[in-house]
Structure formats: structure tokens, C-alpha cells
Amino acid sequence: MTFATAANPLLEKQFQIPFDQIRAGHVEPAVDKLLGEARERLDQVTSDAAPRTFANTMERLDRLTERLEYAMHITRNLEATATTPELRAANNAVQPKVSEFYSSLPLNEALWRAVQSYSLTEEAKALTGVRKRFLEKTIDNFRRHGAELDAAGKQRIAEMDVELTRLTLRFSENVLDSTNQFELVITDESKLAGLPESARAMARASAASKGLEAPAWRFTLQGPSYLAVLTYLDDATIRRQVYEAFVNRATEEKYDNLPVLQRILELWREKANLLGYRDFADLVLEDRMAHSGARAQEFLADLEQKTRAHFERENAELKAFAGKTDLQPWDTAYYAEKQRAALYDFDEEALRPYFPLHSVVNGMFDIVQRLYGIRVVEKTGVPVWDPEVKYYEIHDDRLAGASLLGAFYADWYPRENKRSGAWMDVLITGGVSAERHEPHAAMICGNLTPPVDGHPSLLTHREVQTIFHEFGHLLHHCLSRVEVRGLAGVNVAWDFVELPSQIMENWTWEREALDLFAHHYQTGALIPQDLFEKMRAARNFRAANAQMRQLGFAIADLALHREYSRERDGDLLTYVRAILQRFSPARLPERYGMIASFTHLFASPVGYGAGYYSYKWSEVLDADAFTRFRASGVFSRDVGSRFRENILSRGDSEDPAELYRKFMGRDPDPNALLERSGLLAGR
Ligand SMILES: [Zn+2]
């Protein structure tokens, strides 16, 4: 079946996307045409003989791929939520072409010259605000991608990028293969003592799927299986065996990631040096809120120092509880779970009846209406990709004539044609300027507990937090009022992007906010006070250990880029082990290769390398910013308006540190995070 381009819905940008008409067969012809169009537009920018202006250079650059983005966003989102083999094939066919086009832009000499000559004009020198920032960031971005290097330098960057793509892919394949290589089959049921029924059922199903004859229970190094064994299984010998296999994945023989890791680090360092930076951390952090590797290291060291005493107290308490003078690393999760049950007598399942999805979502809309004066309304009769998907509009009634800020689709339940996890994704980036107002569009997805046996969907508290979190990202996109598309919405630094999302989670812990939406699905009752108190108390159980674990990874991540020298420090695994030991509640085994399976850091050429600190960094921002809401009442319209004006509507139109100061009146204070986690000194 072929599609005439005239009838291809991906070629015509429409605010209400015709999801009912889009087919896999539309993808390739549309993307090929739009890529051609983007190349033509690029030629028009670079070959324009008229004097350079913001309009004929920067604005055209900002809108260069607008139509291509529209088609790509829709394709990617359909592939994630309603995939078919045809759609997957089409997506796989177009992705490489599109990413190749994007990565060619900063190396395009003619474009670089056009931007540079514009920057020398009087108009450019007089720019202010978001336009000034856009020009500066564009030039910086070209530089960081090698635009100023000579031909040999550019050639070397391109070679390194090819090698890095290959190595990072190899890294994740090795992790996957060595994870899958391990299995532990138990046939004696008495060895399963301690393990809950859900984990036994999972292990039975895993054994059956491998054709093993019952009775047999099969355990693997996949997250749910591994965590269940380490947390619940009474037999310490088995826990040890599984633990040692887990922490030494991808350290041996054909799946050995050590040489891969060494080479990735060397290349990242060479690239940074070639571009004039001390190290890779300084290269990637320059454009982030932390600005430099040294600043990120100081931030982490400060938190480490403030957390250490609590960490040691928690570890002493756990040893006392377990009645042991020394705990092994495969013992801590096990005894911690026993301690948690003894201290809090709190069953997370008891909260579910108070969290029917419908009521949670409506309560969340109510909260943002109070805070930001926006109205979220459901609209029916709009084309969607699955009958379960709902469509909403966000209005601000104060904006006469243009009250529609944005619209979004919500897709909450798991399906076989949908990927796992929860996420927000952009469909259309609108924008505002003196002449125009275009609403935004986005989608929000989850894999939440579906309705069963005539009961509505009843969520865990973690799932409630997930909804609030993703909705925070959605507001950041839909409330954006930034003239430059590339600086709008969630196009912000990685260590800032989680502020709008994480701050939303705070409302799921406040009694007043919970009372708006946490109503028993049968009786309408609010959460009983004793259950609420247990939930609050258990929130900070072993918070210092959780924090130290994150700090350890973040500190090791930066040390590898900024301090590690193979000649001086020797073997990389031993070096990282020594760092992580400071953050571990138990003595780590001599052979400890966690870093070799740290896909988060090394499985992508532009992944989270040197960026792990961002998690703690954003947590500091969200905990601190929320104190302003708490102080004025958690529904304060006044504080809400300031948050909306200075953060949610501003995208990356100004330095995020400046945006934060405008909201808070000062720089972030890390004590707010410590206080929220119960880790302030003197407690
Ligand atoms: Zn997030």
C-alpha cells in the first residue's frame, strides 16, 4: 500500500493530531520529505546574501526542523504506546537518518559562519533577554562540538564519536548478556524460606518459561528477582552467591567491560582536552547549573559531610537490631527490611483503597488550579491512539482570547503494545511572541495498576507520586511562554529539569493536599490519622543510607573524569571500589565490579557520564523550593504565581540559577533536603 504525500497526515501540522488516520506506512515517506525540506531550509539560511539579521539567521535556525519534529514526536510516541511490527520497523528506519542530520548541524561550516557573522552585527550586539541567550548558547554549542577546530581536529572528533557510539553500545550489550548468563535454580522448597509468595510465583513462572520441571524456582539478576532474594531470603549463603554475581557482572571473559570502560574514559578525556577543557566533566557541565566539575564535587562533598554522622548512626542501629557485630553486604537489605517491619508496622498496600486513579488525577488538577490559576478540562470526541487514552485542555481564563495554554493526552494503564515505565513527552512546542500565541501539546504515560474484578484502579503511594512527578514535567512544557522554541519548556539543563517534576511529589505527602483526593473508593473516608503517620514515619527510614548510596555513585562518577589516572591509581575496579567503600554500610568484597555494569553512566555516548550528581542537585532544589510553599500554605496562590512566573513559564530563557533566585530570593540551601529526609544535625 502506498500513500500519496498529499494525504500523509504527518506532513500537515495540526493541533488536534489525527491519531486515527496515522499509519506506519506514512512514517518513512513523511520523514524523507521533511528531512529534504530541512536541508533546503538550511541551504536558504546559509546562502542568504542579505545582511545577517536575527530573523533571517537565528529565527530560521530555531524553526528549521519544526515540521520534522512534529512527525518524529508523533512517530516516537506511537511507537512507545501503540506499537506494531510495521511501526517499529518504520521508526528504526528513520531514527538514524534523523539523528545523523541533527549531529551534522554543529559541524556545518557554512552555518557556523552564518551564525558568527550575525554575531558581529550591531543588531546582535544590542540583543537582550532570551534572544541574546539564544545567540550565546548557539555559539557555545557549536564550540563544544568542535566548530572552531581545524580540519584535523574536526576529523578526530568525528572518529571519536564513531568509536564512542560503538563502545557504549558494546558496554550495554555486555551488561545485558552477562546479566542473562546467570541463573540460580532451586528445587528444594525449604531453601525459599523468608521469600514472599509474589517472589516465589515469579521464580516459578521463570522456571516454567525455561521448560524446567516443577518443583523448580529460577532466580536471575534482573531487578525484581535480585531485590527479592537480597531483601527476603533467609539463607545467607544463597544471598551471598546472588550478590557476588550481581556486583561482578560484565567483569569477566567475553563480557568484560573493563577494557571498554577504560577506552570510553580515555576518549571522553581526549575529546574534552581537544576542545580546550580540563576534563570531560568540565566539558559537559559547562552548560549546566553546576557549570564545572569542581563545583559539582564541592556540592557532593558538602552533602557527604552533613550526612555521614546519620549514616553511621543508622548502621550502628541496624547492627544492634540484627544482634551482630559485623554485617556483610548481602545482609544489609535483609536485616533492614526486618527492622523496618518491626519499627513501623506499615503495610503499603493498606493505602491503595484511598488512591483510586480517577480521584487522584482530579485532585491533582484541583491542586494546580489553586496554585497556578489554571483549569484542566477533559474533552471527548478527540482522536486518540487507544480507547483508554483521555484528552485534556489546560486553560488560563485571565488570558482573554487566548486562554488555551496547551493540551495533553493521558495514557495510564499497561498494554502489550506499550513500553514500560512512566514518562512525559512533547508533541508540539507552541510559543508566544508579540505576534503569535500557539498552544503546546504533550502526552503523559504510565503503567499503573489497572482496574480489576470490578474495582477501579487503586494505586500505591509510589504510583501517586509518579503521576504527580510526570504532571510536573507536563506543566513545565505546557505553561512555557518562551519566544525561542529551542529554549522553551523542558529544554533546560539536566540538573534543573527535575525541579518542576520532583516538587510536585511533595504534595502527595501533605495532609491538606491528600484530603483533596485520597478518598476511600467505597466509603469516601479520608486516610485515617494513624495510617498517615505511619506512612510519614516510614518515609525517612534509613534515609542517610539511601542518600550516601547516591552520593557514592555521583562522587565516583566525577572522580573517574577528574582524578583517576591509570598509571598512578592502577586498576579501575579497585579504584572505584575504594571510593564506594566510604558509602557502603558493610565492608565490600575484594572483588567488587559494580562500575562495570553501570549502564546509566556508560551506555550512551551522550548519557549521564559526569551527570549523576544531577539527581541530588535537583532534589536540593525541589526540597528547598517547597519550603516556600509550606511557609505560606501548600495552596498559596501567591507562591504558586511566583513559581509559575519564574520557573514553569520560563524554560531555559534565562540562566536557571537566576530563575531560581528570582523565585526564592536567594541561592538554594541544601539544608532543606536534609531536613525533609530527617538528616539535619542535632536530630
Ligand atoms: Zn522526571
Write up this protein.
The chain is mostly helical. The protein is built from 28 helices and nine strands. The strands form three sheets. It has a five-stranded mixed sheet with strand order 3-4-5-9-6. The chain has a two-stranded antiparallel ribbon with strand order 1-2. A two-stranded antiparallel ribbon has the order 7-8. α17 (461-478) runs antiparallel to α18. The relative contact order is 0.10. It binds zinc ion.
Q: In angstroms, what separates the terminal alpha carbons?
A: 70 Å
Question: Are any ligands bound, and if so which?
Answer: zinc ion
Number of strands: 9
What's the Cα radius of gyration? 26 Å
Largest sheet descriptor? 5 strands, mixed
Q: Biggest sheet, strands in spatial order?
A: 3-4-5-9-6
Percentage of residues in helical conformation = 40-55%
Q: What structural category do the secondary elements indicate?
A: mainly alpha
* Fraction of residues in β-strands: 5-15%
Give the uncertain stretches in residue-range form.
none
Number of helices: 28
Principal-axis shape equals globular
Determine the mean pLDDT: 93
Annotate the secondary structure layout.
Layout (H helix, E strand, L loop, with lengths): L23 H24 L6 H9 L3 H16 L3 H20 L4 H11 L2 H4 L3 H16 L6 H31 L2 E3 L10 H13 L7 E3 L3 H10 L3 H12 L10 H17 L5 H6 L7 H30 L9 H13 L12 H16 L2 E4 L11 E6 L8 E8 L11 E6 L2 E2 L4 E2 L1 E6 L15 H18 L20 H7 L5 H7 L11 H11 L3 H20 L3 H4 L2 H10 L17 H4 L11 H19 L4 H12 L7 H9 L6 H6 L7
Parallel strand pairs: 5-9
Antiparallel strand pairs: 1-2, 3-4, 4-5, 6-9, 7-8
Helix pairs in contact: 1-2, 1-3, 1-4, 1-5, 5-7, 8-12, 14-21, 16-19, 17-18, 18-25, 21-23, 26-27
The structure holds zinc ion.
